[in-house]
Amino acid sequence: MSLESQMIELGKRAKKASYILAGISTEVKNQALLSMARALEERMELILDANQQDMDAGRAKGLSGALLDRLLLTAERIKEMADGLRDLVGLPDPVGEVIKMWTRPNGLRVGRLRVPLGVIGIIYEARPNVTVDAAGLCLKAGNAVILRGGSEALQSNLVLTRVISAAAVSAGIPEGAIQLVPTTDREAANMMMTMNDYIDVLIPRGGAGLINAVTANATVPVLKTGVGNCHTYVDDEADLEMATKIVVNAKTQRPGVCNAMETLLVNEKCAKSFLPAAAAALREKGVELRGCEKVREIIPDCLPASEEDWATEYLDLILAVKVVRDLEEAIDHIHTYGTKHSEAIITNNYQKAMLFVQRVDAAAVFVNASTRFTDGHQFGFGAEIGISTQKLHARGPMGLEELTSTKFVILGDGQIRS
Amino acid sequence: MSLESQMIELGKRAKKASYILAGISTEVKNQALLSMARALEERMELILDANQQDMDAGRAKGLSGALLDRLLLTAERIKEMADGLRDLVGLPDPVGEVIKMWTRPNGLRVGRLRVPLGVIGIIYEARPNVTVDAAGLCLKAGNAVILRGGSEALQSNLVLTRVISAAAVSAGIPEGAIQLVPTTDREAANMMMTMNDYIDVLIPRGGAGLINAVTANATVPVLKTGVGNCHTYVDDEADLEMATKIVVNAKTQRPGVCNAMETLLVNEKCAKSFLPAAAAALREKGVELRGCEKVREIIPDCLPASEEDWATEYLDLILAVKVVRDLEEAIDHIHTYGTKHSEAIITNNYQKAMLFVQRVDAAAVFVNASTRFTDGHQFGFGAEIGISTQKLHARGPMGLEELTSTKFVILGDGQIRS
């Protein structure tokens, strides 16, 4: 069978499963999640064996230590995946909610019913835990899922999918609800991007390269998860001690993630009082600073920042620092270089805080807190499939509700239009 | 200046305007809508003159009567456009609504604030009234708009945009909030599809060709308005008199629009009692019937339907008719050939009605009513920018709220992540 027919078969099975899934009760979905969790723990040896194959191949291919660590499964990590599935059981099922219902003058009752999206395609990179997390989230929200993981994790993903899919089916979930693209052929991922008849929504999870490729080539609607060039603006009316704590946290608590701060903007009125202490605190955590000229007047041994630095998501212990005239210049800088992810102001001035909240165009806008809080769990959603930086459908951390759509339900007794 | 620099200039102006617009009060937006309405009426001669040029050119090019009628502006039609703008004044402003706000255990307050989408690009065909309708809706929801109308209506659109844009600016709206692409070069529309830095959302309004081209080529997120291959299923437990009235209305009340019925599905148990009377009533309104074999056994002079008929959106007084075994087959048929727009069941059986509502995957699902009600005004939204047939962001008729996004606002007092 050609790759194309294989992919269409996969799509058809997913579509068919999605129609059944849309009508399956919360109880059955929860039982399936528990079965899947149990199966992961029971088949741990099998999973670890498969992962060992991926790890061996990865080492032979010379993957970096960081990549190998992302690829690695351990008994503990498998247990975490299982617990993640169990956590979903306690979350409210978004499907079936009638968001609103009203009656028109002609007696028609019009309502909005929350329904699954249908079939979700997920294209992701090396981490095999995404296979289980994404399958669980999609299932709880009543969606069929087609998973396309990175080639490095193929053996792990194949076994993980087989284990959780079988467990789900035995609990009453239709075959085809959880499927993995069983090949590492790049062409398969490309096909997913245009399978509009079978895939309702695509979610790419990975680096900028993957996300840009999907955005450029997909005709299927995309939920774009995002690159974060995040800023913190320290205003002259800030509590500077609080500002230092927040800045250090936003940069260093976990520098490799999208909600970490990449550029620090400092009001010129407080630059001299704030920057020396802040720089010392950051450097103590191993942060390399790259500053504008005004920063370098205050911190002479600071490296110079180039135009490129303002636009860079370092994902590392590097921070660009710029002195700005005022709030206005800070907002302009954010609009010029930001990626509309997470932006923070540190100030005790009410008007400036409100202006920043209102005017900064980003998924999450913070006052007096670390940008590191942009996260589904931190916001209290209980689960997260990614952080959207687009404005359609979902913006910011996406939980179960973001994996649903709505349909209008219109109940009549013979109404016709005149 | 090259076309590309022109388009980027347009985009930059729109983006800049959108940042200001996001903070403009409802009062100013409403005053602008009233000024725009007044200006349309005051400059009626100018608009009619420009439209006359388009009409002359259209006749010279041999445009069809239907197209010329869509292109034509009259004093009455201009008055209607002005009244449409005035109607928007009375609608609630969606921007600034805090949809929800909650407090996390660490004291962080997390809320969702409704904000404009930013810059909306609209690519549409011959009807110049879209220029005014779309500009008004985008403005009320706080968005800047870049309009790209059909080449046939260029002179009308240029004058309309100049008139309403000047009126808006004089009422305090920033320059660049309402712009028309001032060329009919096809390349300009193509550029809009990939202007991700300047356009947040694209809405194509027109035929399947336009919508497919935008879907295929756009990297900017698209709100896809839809083609409607709509069905009505007449169940054996239907009130057949009601069914006839609804079917006639759904097919004939306005056959050229997307929510008109294109295929009638009839349960085999009531086919003999229902079809002769229904066919007579439809034919009385000039409808041509194309039936499956079972239909033709009952209505011998009915034309035969081909496979293609099941998939066709006629937008005309033609109806495909099929006898089905049961509800199951009806739903399967709808899922095979439907376009997920508007689907109806006529039945008095509660279980079947609920099953249809739950299982049919469409933007609008009707029980005992005409599919012609899928419409923003009919649903009570007061305005409509189009009917979405995709599942992301908006599904079904889109009103002002669908022209907005949200952002998370997080208010802290020094919280850092541990």
pLDDT < 50 runs, ≥5 residues of chain A: none
For this structure, what is the CATH homologous superfamily of the largest domain in chain A? Answer: Aldehyde Dehydrogenase, Chain A, domain 1
User: Quaternary arrangement of the chains shown?
Assistant: homodimer
Q: Number of helix segments of chain A?
A: 16
CATH class (first level) name of the largest domain in chain A: Alpha Beta
The CATH topology name of the largest domain in chain A reads Aldehyde Dehydrogenase, Chain A, domain 1
Largest binding interface between chains: A-B, 71 and 71 residues
Total count of domains of chain A: 2
Largest sheet, spatial ordering of strands of chain A: 10-9-11-8-7-12-13
CATH architecture of the largest domain in chain A: 3-Layer(aba) Sandwich
Structural class determined from secondary elements of chain A:
alpha/beta
**Average predicted confidence as pLDDT of chain A:** 95
The portion of residues forming beta strands of chain A comes to 15-25%
Task: Count the beta strands of chain A.
Answer: 16
**Which percent range fits the helix content of chain A?**
40-55%
The major pleated sheet of chain A works out as: 7 strands, parallel
